[in-house]
C-alpha cells in the first residue's frame, strides 16, 4: 500500500512538473542540442578525448585538495576571530579581509610570477629539497586556491563558531570535559552543521575558480579546451562542451551536498 | 662552498636586492612615463568603469528578472530559471570567453546581414555587457529574495490605492526592498570589481592586464602584482565604507540591526 501511494505521489509530482509549456521548452532545448550535434564540428573529439579526461581529473583533484586544506585552515581562522585575544583575532581578520578584497587572479599571479621570480635569486632555496616542486606551476595554484578558500570560509566559520549557544559549551565544561574535548565533541561539530549550507555554495564557487590555474600553465580541463581552440581554430564547440562539463560537475556537487545535509539533524542549537 | 660562505652570499644578495628595490620601486611606480604608476592608475580607472557599468546593467536585468520570476507567466519563469541556473553554474572565465566571442560575432553577422559594415566593438562596451549579463543572474536572485521579504500588506495596500504597476514599483517595491537587497547587492559589487580582472584574459586593458604588461616589461613581477593587489584592496575597503553609508540610509526609519536581533 505504501509503495502504491508513493508511486501515485511520484506520478502526480511529475505530471505537475511536466506542464504543456515545459514539454515545448524541452523539445526546443532538444532541438538546439541536436542542431549543435549535427551542424557543429565535433570531429576533433576522439583526438582530444583522453587529454580531456585527464584535464577533468586534474580539475577535480585541485578542487578536492584545495577545499579540504582550505577548510582545515579556515577552522583556526574562524576560531581566532570568534574567541581569540586581539593578537590572534587581528591577524586572522586582516588575512580574511585581504584575501576577500583582492581578485584571485592577482593573488595567483603574485604567487606564481612574483614569488616565482624572487626564489631563484636565493641559492639556499635552489639547493633545498623544495626546489623541484617550486619550479612547477601547480604548487602555486594549489596554494593560491587554498588560501582563497580559507579566507572566504574563515569568515563563515567565525559566524558559525560564534553562533553556537554558550549554554552548550558551559554544559560540556560542567560535565568535566576538557577544553579540547568540548571543542572536539561539541563546538566544532555544531559549528560545521551551521556552516554546511554555505559550504555548498563555497565549494561551487571554488570549482568555478579552478580554471584560473590555466593562466599559470597548469593543464586542467580549461587549458585543454584552450588548446583545442588553438589547434582547430574552432571558437564555440570546445567552449560549449566546457560549459556543459562544468554544469555537470556543479550539478553533481549540489546533489551530493544536499544528500549530506539531509542526513544532519536540522534541530541545531 | 662552505655553509658560512653560502649564508654570506645569501646575505649580500638580499642586501643587493633590498637596496636595488627601495630605490627602484619608487622609480618603477612613479606616475610619470619612466615609471608605470600612471598605467596602473589608468587600468584601475577602466576596471572601475566596467564594474560600475556591469553593476548598473546587472541591476536592470536583475529587477526585470525578479519581476519575471515573481509575477511572470510560466514560460517566462522557466526561461529565467534556466538563465540564472546556467550562469551560476558555469565559471565566469568560460562565460566571459563564450559571451565575448559569441556576442561580437552575432552583432557583426546581424550587421552584415542588414547590409552594414562590420564594426569593431569597443572593449569597454563588450566588457560591461558580458559582466552585466553575469551579474544580472545573481542580482535576479538577490532582488527576488528582497521583494519576497517585503511585508505583503504594503504591496496590497498600494494596489488597493489604485497605483499603477509602474508607480507601485517606483514608490513602494523598490524603496521597501532596498534594505533587504543592499547586503547582497553590495557583495555583488565587490564581486564585480574583482571579476573585472578576468577580462584581462580576453585582452581587455584594465588593472590586471596593465599590471601584467608593466611586470613583463620591467621584470619586477613581485612589485607590480603587489601594487595591483593593494589597489584592488583599497577599492574594496573604500567600497565597504560607502556601502555602510548607503545601508544606513536605506534603513532610515527602521530599527537598527542590533536592536532588531
List the helices and strands and how they pair.
The complex is a heterodimer of chains A (269) and B (261).
Chain A: H1 2-17, H2 20-39, H3 45-83, H4 86-101, H5 104-118, H6 123-127, H7 131-134, H8 138-163, H9 166-174, H10 179-209, H11 221-232, H12 236-263
Helix pairs in contact in A: 3-4, 3-8, 3-10, 3-11, 4-8, 5-8, 8-10, 9-10, 10-12, 11-12
Chain B: H1 3-29, H2 37-71, H3 74-89, H4 92-113, H5 123-149, H6 152-160, H7 165-195, H8 207-218, H9 221-250, H10 257-260
Helix pairs in contact in B: 2-3, 2-5, 2-7, 2-8, 3-5, 4-5, 5-7, 6-7, 7-9, 8-9
Total DSSP helices of chain A: 12
Number of separate domains of chain A: 2
Number of helices of chain B: 10
The end-to-end distance of chain B, rounded to whole angstroms, is 67 Å
Indicate the proportion of strand residues of chain B. Answer: under 5%
How many discrete domains of chain B?
1
Cα-atom radius of gyration of chain A: 24 Å
The largest sheet of chain B is: none
Reading off the top of the CATH hierarchy, the class of the largest domain in chain A is best stated as Mainly Alpha
What sequence of helices (H) and strands (E) makes up the elements of chain A?
HHHHHHHHHHHH
Amino acid at each position: 500500500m505504501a509503495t502504491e501511494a508513493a508511486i501515485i505521489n511520484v506520478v502526480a509530482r511529475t505530471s505537475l512538473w511536466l506542464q504543456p509549456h515545459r514539454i515545448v521548452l524541452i523539445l526546443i532545448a532538444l532541438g538546439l542540442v541536436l542542431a549543435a550535434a549535427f551542424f557543429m564540428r565535433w570531429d576533433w573529439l576522439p583526438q582530444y578525448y583522453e587529454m580531456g579526461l585527464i584535464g577533468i581529473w586534474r580539475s577535480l583533484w585541485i578542487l578536492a585538495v584545495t577545499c579540504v586544506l582550505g577548510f582545515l585552515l579556515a577552522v583556526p581562522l574562524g576560531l581566532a576571530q570568534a574567541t581569540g585575544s586581539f593578537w590572534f583575532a587581528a591577524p586572522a581578520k586582516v588575512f580574511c579581509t585581504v584575501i576577500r578584497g583582492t581578485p584571485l587572479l592577482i593573488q595567483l599571479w603574485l604567487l606564481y610570477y612574483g614569488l616565482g621570480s624572487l626564489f631563484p635569486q636565493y641559492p639556499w632555496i635552489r639547493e633545498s629539497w623544495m626546489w623541484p616542486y617550486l619550479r612547477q606551476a601547480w604548487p602555486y595554484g594549489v596554494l593560491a586556491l587554498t588560501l582563497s578558500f580559507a579566507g572566504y570560509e574563515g569568515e563563515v566559520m567565525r559566524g558559525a563558531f560564534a553562533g553556537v549557544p554558550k549554554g552548550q559549551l558551559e554544559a560540556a565544561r560542567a560535565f568535566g570535559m576538557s577544553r579540547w574535548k568540548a571543542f572536539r565533541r561539541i563546538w566544532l561539530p555544531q559549528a560545521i552543521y551551521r556552516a554546511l549550507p554555505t559550504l555548498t555554495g563555497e565549494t561551487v564557487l571554488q570549482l568555478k575558480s579552478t580554471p584560473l590555474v590555466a593562466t599559470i600553465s597548469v593543464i586542467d580541463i580549461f587549458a585543454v579546451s584552450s588548446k583545442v581552440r588553438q589547434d582547430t581554430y574552432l571558437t564555440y564547440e570546445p567552449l560549449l562542451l566546457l560549459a556543459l562539463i562544468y554544469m555537470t560537475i556543479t550539478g553533481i556537487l549540489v546533489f551530493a551536498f544536499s544528500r549530506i545535509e539531509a542526513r544532519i539533524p536540522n534541530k541545531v542549537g | 662552498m662552505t655553509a658560512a660562505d653560502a649564508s654570506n652570499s645569501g646575505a649580500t644578495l638580499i642586501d643587493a636586492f633590498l637596496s636595488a628595490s627601495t630605490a627602484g620601486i619608487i622609480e618603477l611606480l612613479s606616475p610619470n612615463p619612466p615609471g608605470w604608476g600612471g598605467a596602473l592608475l589608468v587600468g584601475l580607472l577602466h576596471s572601475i568603469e566596467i564594474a560600475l557599468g556591469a553593476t548598473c546593467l546587472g541591476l536592470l536585468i536583475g529587477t526585470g528578472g525578479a519581476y519575471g520570476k515573481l509575477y511572470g507567466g510560466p514560460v517566462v519563469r522557466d526561461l529565467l530559471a534556466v538563465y540564472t541556473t546556467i550562469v551560476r553554474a558555469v565559471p565566469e572565465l568560460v562565460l566571459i570567453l563564450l559571451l565575448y566571442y559569441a556576442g561580437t560575432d552575432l552583432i557583426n553577422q546581424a550587421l552584415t546581414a542588414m547590409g552594414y559594415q562590420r564594426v569593431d566593438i569597443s572593449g569597454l562596451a563588450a566588457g560591461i555587457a558580458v559582466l552585466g549579463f553575469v551579474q544580472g543572474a545573481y542580482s535576479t536572485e538577490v532582488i527576488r529574495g528582497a521583494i519576497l521579504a517585503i511585508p505583503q500588506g504594503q504591496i496590497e495596500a498600494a494596489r488597493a490605492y489604485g497605483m499603477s504597476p509602474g508607480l507601485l514599483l517606483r514608490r513602494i517595491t523598490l524603496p521597501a526592498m532596498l534594505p533587504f537587497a543592499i547586503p547582497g547587492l553590495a557583495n555583488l559589487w565587490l564581486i564585480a570589481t574583482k571579476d573585472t580582472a578576468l577580462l584581462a584574459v580576453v585582452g581587455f586593458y584594465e588593472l590586471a592586464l596593465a599590471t601584467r604588461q608593466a611586470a613583463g616589461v620591467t621584470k619586477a613581477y613581485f612589485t607590480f602584482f603587489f601594487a595591483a593587489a593593494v589597489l584592488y584592496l583599497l577599492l574594496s575597503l573604500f567600497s565597504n565604507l560607502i556601502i555602510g553609508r548607503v545601508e544606513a540610509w536605506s534603513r532610515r526609519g527602521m530599527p537598527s540591526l542590533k536592536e532588531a536581533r
